[in-house]
Amino acid sequence: MNSEFLTSATKEGEYPEADRPEVVVVGRSNVGKSSFINAFTNRKKLAYVGNTPGKTQLINFFMIDGAWYLVDVPGYGYAKLSKAQIAKLGRMMDEYFLKRKNLTCVVQLVDARHDPSKDDMEMVDFFKEMHIPIVAVATKIDKIPKTKRINHLKKISQKLQIPLAHIFAVSSTEKIGFEQVEEELQKRIEQ
Ligand code: GTP
Ligand code: MG
Predict the structure, then answer these.
(1) Contacts of 92 (CB under 8 A, 6+ apart)
(2) Domain, as residue range, for 77
(3) Does ligand 1 lie within 6 Å of residue 60's CB atom?
(4) Residue with CA nearest ligand 1 atom 24
(5) Does ligand 1 lie within 6 Å of residue 157's CB atom?
(6) Is the pTM of this model over 0.90?
(7) What angle do helix axes 149-160 and 118-129 make, rounded to 10 degrees?
(8) How does residue 57 score in pLDDT terms, banded at 50, 70 and 90?
(9) Radius of gyration of the chain (CA)
(10) Residue 42 belongs to a domain with what CATH number?
(11) For 80, which of 89, 97, 182, 190 is 20 to 30 Å away at the CA?
(12) What residues pack around ion ligand 2 (CB closer than 5 A)?
């Protein structure tokens, strides 16, 4: 897979031309969005990864195989940002979801260890209302013993009201689960 960083944006005027299908990776701050993008593209430092939540502050566009855009965005639910900063990021993301006409699907990341948060459920409901297709991915699956993984995924499926067969599990540190996600995204992009 070929990948390159294209540009960062805060508003519509700065987005790349909407001339290709686009997939955006969303989820709570620190859930592993940027790590997901690096593991998915098999690049070490394509997207910024940090131990402190709130690492990604801009909308970052990557070109994949010259054919589609993959997008990294700030996470939600990070309490340590100021109210003004949270509001600003919220407006930036609202504009993105309302305006971006080439958006093909969202990859909704949730932490495999925990039940989806209230914020996660609100995001999923928002995408359902907007008729934006959702690919659900549980991250950090390496942190759960193998025998317990299926139960965690079932719980996530129930909470998000997304069929278990449509929930993928990945580990960005161990590079597990990415072929399946890639296959799924290719299907959506080709539609
Ligand atoms: P923001 O940009 O702040 O919204 O965070 P993010 O969702 O982009 O998370 P990021 O990829 O920066 O990862 C946050 C932390 O989780 C880092 O310390 C990563 O190394 C760690 N991490 C991400 N994915 C995995 C995973 O699959 N397994 C494990 N064990 N750690 C992970
Ligand atoms: Mg990030």
Answers:
(1) 10, 11, 59, 74
(2) 3-13+20-190
(3) no
(4) 32
(5) no
(6) yes
(7) 50
(8) confident
(9) 15
(10) 3.40.50.300
(11) 97
(12) 33-34, 55-56
